[in-house]
Amino acid sequence: MITINDTLRTTADTGILKTICPDTDSICFFDIETTGFSRNYNIVYLIGTVYFRDGISHYSQWLAESDSDEAYILTAFNDFLKDFHTLIHFNGDAFDIPFITERAAHLNVVLDLSHLESLDLYKTARKCKSILSLSDYKQKTIEHFLGIEREDMYSGGELIDIYKKFSSRPSDAEHNNYRKLLLLHNHDDIEGMLSLLPLISYYAVIMDSYTIDSTVIDKDTDSDGRAYLRLIAECSLPVSVPVDRHICLDDIHLIIKGCRMTLVVPACSDTMKYFFKDYRNYYYLPSEDEAIHKSIAQYVDSNNRVKCNASNCYAKKTGIFIPVSGTINIPVYKHNYDDSKTFALFDDVFSSDSEIRKLYIQHILNHILGK
What we know:
Elements: E1 2-7, H1 17-20, E2 27-34, E3 44-53, E4 56-63, H2 70-80, E5 86-89, H3 96-106, E6 117-120, H4 121-127, H5 129-132, H6 139-145, H7 156-167, H8 172-194, H9 199-206, E7 211-221, E8 227-236, E9 245-249, E10 252-257, E11 260-275, E12 282-285, E13 290-293, H10 294-297, E14 306-307, E15 314-324, E16 342-345, H11 346-350, H12 354-369
Parallel strand pairs: 2-5, 5-6
Antiparallel strand pairs: 1-4, 2-3, 3-4, 7-8, 8-11, 9-10, 10-11, 11-15, 12-13, 12-14, 15-16
Helix pairs in contact: 4-9, 7-8
C-alpha cells in the first residue's frame, strides 16, 4: 500500500464550509476509485481525502499496489475517519459508501461510518434543480455551470486498465509513471469536489435559510401606462451565490444575486370575500351582501335573513391582496366561491409577527420552485 500525505494548493473558496459545520477541522471530503461497478467482483484500489487543519487544506491518499492491499487501504481509511464528524462526497450515498461498506464486510475489515454525517453534493445539486435548471447533474456539468473547466486526461475505463498495468508490477519506470497517473486523477477529483461547494449557497434558498430584510408594496406602471401593485420582499442569504439566477412563474419573479434574494409578487387593491366553511351556522343578509353567525342573526328580522349555502357564506374585505397557491395557514380570500385563484390580505401577512411573514415567503418559494 502506498500512502500519500501533503498540503493541497487550491483556489476553491472554503469559507462556505462554516455553514455546513462551524468546526471545519471535522469535515472530510472523499472519493474512491474502483476496478468496476460490482461490489462482489471488483475492488477499491484507491481512496482519496481532503481535510483541513487550522485553515490549511491537506489531502491523503491510499493506493493498493495489488488486489491484496484492498483490506489495508480500507483499514487505513477507517482509522483516519475517527477524528471527523462530516463526510462530503459526490454521489457517495449511492455508490462510494455502499461500495466500500460491502467490500469491507466481504474482507472482514472494520469500517465504521456510523458517527459521520453525510453530505452528498450530487443530492444537493438535484434538490436545487428548480434553481439551476441544468441539462443533467453530472459533476462536469455542474463544474461547467460554476465556470470550472477541467478536462480529465483519462476516462474511468482507461484508469482501470492503467491500474491493472500498475498492479502487474512492470518495470520501475512504468510502475512509477502509472502510479503518478492514478494518484493525479484522484487528486483532481477530490480537489474538484471543493469547487462544488458554492452549490450550498443555492441550497440555502431551498432550505429557507435566509433573513427577510424588508417587505413593501410598490406601485409601478407597465408599458401601456397602466398602474399596478407588487409586493417586493428583500432577503439576505448566508453566503453569496456564484451565478445569478432569475426564475419566473405566474408573474412571480425570484431574483438571486450575490447575497441577495428578491421576490417580486403581483398584488392588487380590491374587495374580496372570505368564505366560512361551516356555512350551516350562518345566515346571509341580502341587504348587506354578507353572512353573519347564527348567534348574531337571531337578533335580525327573519324577513331580512336567509340560511346560508356554501356560495354566499362570506365576509367581505377591502384592501391590498397578494396571491396564494394551495394550502396555507392564514385566511384566504377570493372573488367568488368557485374561483380557483385565492389571495391573502397583505395586512394579515405583513402587519403581524415575523413567523407569518416567513410562512408566506416560504409558501411562494414552494410554489415557484416546486418544492
